[in-house]
Design goal:
By secondary structure, the protein is mainly α. Helix content is about 75%, strand content about 0%.
Length: about 180
Amino acid sequence: MQRGLYEQRKNQFENANTFLNNAQQIQKRSYQIRHALAKNEMAWGVYELKNQYFGSAAYHYEKGEEKFLELINSPDYSKALGYSVHSYVNLKIDYYTLASDVLSDEEIGDMYGYLIQTATADYKVMQQAVQKVYEYCMAKGIKKDVTEKFEKENFWQCKKAYEHREGINFVRDYMIM
């Protein structure tokens, strides 16, 4: 696994994938390896988009996104939810900042819900992710009611409310118009 992470840091994503897949063959249920594989695919997509390799950027990005969503939505890995959400949100914003497409209100609402679910995660790290989404929304001119969700006070008030409720459905019902 360490070799895969090393290759990933060098932007050698195909090599990283090989090493990480080999590690997964040894430890099939390892959260760390699954997280690293998801992050590698999404980062590969971001790297290719940034360097204008448009042919497979979307493929790698979508493959990584699918893997992250499996981790985020799996009760087996709920203790590490903050790590997955933080990486997922950051890479998603990185990708869409470079892409000509704009995130839909639904996608932003989903990210918002995932961030609120991380009520027990490191406050500073999650605050950075919230700020990144908010800045993206402002830069892309996304409509006001969506951006207001990410204003600092509103987000943390909803986070506290979520701590007393169960499930993402509360967030979606409360925040998505």
